[in-house]
Amino acid sequence: MELEKIIPDKNRLFIGADIPEEYRTDIYVENVPAPYAVALVKTKKEIINLVKFANEKDIKIITRGAGTGVAGAQVPIHGGELIIDVHLMNRILDLDEETLTLTVEPGALLSEVQQYVESRGYFYPPDPGSKHSTIGGNVSTNAGGMRAVKYGTTRDYVRSIDVVLPNGDEVTLGSLNIKNSSGYDLKNLFIGSEGTLGIITEIQLKILPLPQYKRSVLLAFKDVFEATEGVLTILRAGIKPTALEMFERETIAYSERFLKDRLPSQKGSAYVLMTVDDNHEENIHNIIAQTKELLNEQALEIIVLNEQEEKRTWRLRDNILTALMEFTEYEMLDEVVPINRFAEMIKFTKTLQEKYGIKVINFGHAGDGNVHTVLMKEDFDQKTWRTKREQLLDELYEKVKELGGLPSAEHGIGVVKKKYLARMKDPVELELMKKIKQAIDPDNRLNPGKIF
User: Fold this and answer.
1) What's residue 1's pLDDT?
2) pLDDT (mean) for 383-410
3) How far apart are CA 207 and CA 123, in angstroms?
4) How does DSSP classify residue 67?
5) Quick count: other Cβ atoms within 10 Å of Cβ 303?
6) In whole angstroms, what is the distance from residue 202 CA to residue 184 CA?
7) For an engineered disulfide with 137, which of 65, 190, 294, 324 has Cβ 3.0 to 4.6 Å away?
8) pLDDT above 90 (res 340)
9) Sign of the C-alpha dihedral computed for residues 334, 270, 150 and 308 taken in this order
10) What is residue 284's predicted lDDT score, i.e. its pLDDT?
11) DSSP state for residue 265 in the 8-state scheme
C-alpha cells in the first residue's frame, strides 16, 4: 500500500520537498531534520492504514496536533519520520447528559470544547494557557493549567480513550464506570505518554455542571516572597480557589505594553490573581471577606474585580507569553516543587539571574507549586545565549531536584528536558519506563527519542 492510496487528497498529504516549513520548525529545537511525509488524517481508518504502512516500510511515526507543545515532542529529531497530523479530526461527537460525558476527536480545540459545554450549562475544568491546543495534545501531556489547584489536571477528566497501537491494533482504555479495580490502569499509563505508546483517535471526557457564580480578586504584594506567603496563607485557611496565579510586575508589564492596557493595581512588584466559584453567591462573598481579613496587613492592595476588570485582568495574564514573543526570544520552563518550597525556588532563580546575567522572570500556578520560569535572550548572540542558558539550566534543575521537585508539571519532557529527567528520576524508575515502552512498542516506532 502506498501513501497516496491511503490519503488520496493532495491537500492532506505532503512528501519530501512539498512538506510545509512549519513541520520543521520548533522554538525549542534547533536544526529540525526533514520528515519523510506529513499526512493530515480525518479518520481512524486512515491512521490505522498509515501505521500499517509505517510498519511495512520500517518508518518511525510522530503524532501532531495543533503544534503548540513547548518541549519539542512534536518534531523529528532523527529525520525521515512520518508525521500523522490529527488537527482535522476535530469534531465534537456527542454530549451524554446522563453520564456527563463529552466525546471528542483528538484534534478538537480546548477553546471550542470549553465554549461548547458552557453554552449548554456544563463545565470542562482543565484550562491550560494555550486555548488553541488540542484535546489530544492535552491528554498526551496531561496538561494542567490555571484551575488545577481546585479541579486537577486533564488526567482527572478522561473517562476513556480509543488508541491505535504501534502495530495497528485498536483498543479502548477506560470506561464510563466511575470506579475501577479491574486490572492495570492502562488508560492513565497512556495519558501523559507524549505519543510514545499509541495514537489517540477518540476521547471521552468527564464534564461537570457549570458553577453558577464566580468572582476574581487581585492582590498586590511587596515582592514574590510576600506573594507566595500570601498564597500559603490562603491555602492553609482551607480556601479552595478555582485559580491562584502569581506573577511579577516586570512579567505583567510585557502584557501591558502588548495589549496597551494596565493592571487594576500598580502597587508592589508581585501579584496574586485568585478566582473563586460556587453555586451559592453568599459563599463567594464569605470567601472573599475571609481572604481580605487574612491578608489585610500582608497585601499592599486587595481589589475585588468587577466583571469588566476581571476580563481585562485575566486577558493580561493569559497574554504573557504572546507578549514576550513580541519583544525577545525566550525559554519557558514548567518546573514544579512542593508548594512550601515555591518561594525558595523563585528566590533561587533570581540568584541565577545575577550569576549569569540572564534576565529571569517568573509566573505560575502558585496554588500547586508549578513555576513558569522564563529566561530572556534579549541582546545575547546565539553562541553566548546557548552557553549561558545551558549553565543556568543545569543549576536550576539541580535546585529543583534538591527541593523535591520535578522538571515538568504540565508541558511534558519531549526532547528539551530529557537529560534533566534522567538526572532527577530514580534509575530504577527510568528503567521501568523504558521496559514499558519496549513492551508496547518493541520497534520504537512511535515518537522515538522523546522522554528518555
Assistant:
1) 62
2) 97
3) 6
4) S
5) 18
6) 21
7) 65
8) no
9) negative
10) 97
11) -
**What integer best gives the mean pLDDT of the chain?**
96
**Spacing of C-alpha 381 from chain mean position:** 29
Give me the numbers of helices (H) and strands (E) for the chain, helices first please. 15, 18
Q: How far apart are CA 1 and CA 56, in angstroms?
A: 9
Q: How far is CA 407 from the centre of its chain?
A: 13
Per-residue pLDDT at 12? 98
Closest CA to 101 of 204, 229, 218: 204
Strand partners, 373: 362
User: Which residue(s) pair with 406 in the sheet?
Assistant: 336
Distance between terminal CA atoms of the chain? 32
- Do 166 and 205 contact (CB within 8 A), yes or no? no
Closest to 79 measured CA to CA, from 63, 62, 64: 62
**Looking at residue 145, what DSSP letter applies?**
B
Per-residue cell: 288: 472573599
C-alpha angle 447/450/335, rounded to 5°?
135
| Pairing of the two strands 82-85 and 37-40 | parallel
- Cα separation values, 25 from 69, 73, 74, 320, Å: 12, 12, 10, 22
CA distance 76 to 32: 6
Helix (H, G, I), strand (E, B) or coil at 271: strand
Distance in angstroms (rounded) separating the CA atoms of residues 123 and 222: 35
Residues 6+ apart with CB under 8 A from 337: 344, 345, 369, 371, 400, 403, 404, 405
pLDDT in tens, 135-160: 999 999 999 999 999 999 999 999 99
In degrees, to the nearest 5, what angle opens at C-alpha 412 toward C-alphas 275 and 362? 50
Phi, psi (rounded to 5 degrees) for 307: -60, -45
- Residue written as cell 522572570? 361
CB 335 within 8 A of CB 406: yes
Q: Give the separation between CA 107 and CA 64, rounded to whole angstroms.
A: 9
Helix (H) or strand (E) holding 228: helix 224-236
Burial class from Cβ neighbours inside 10 Å (0-12, 13-18, 19+) for residue 411 reads buried
For the chain, the farthest-separated pair of C-alpha atoms sits apart, in whole angstroms, at: 71
For residues 187 and 209, the answer to whether their CB atoms sit within 8 Å is no
Give the pLDDT mean for 243-262. Answer: 96
Phi-psi region of 80 (alpha: psi -120 to 50; beta: other; left: phi over 0): left
pLDDT score of 361: 92
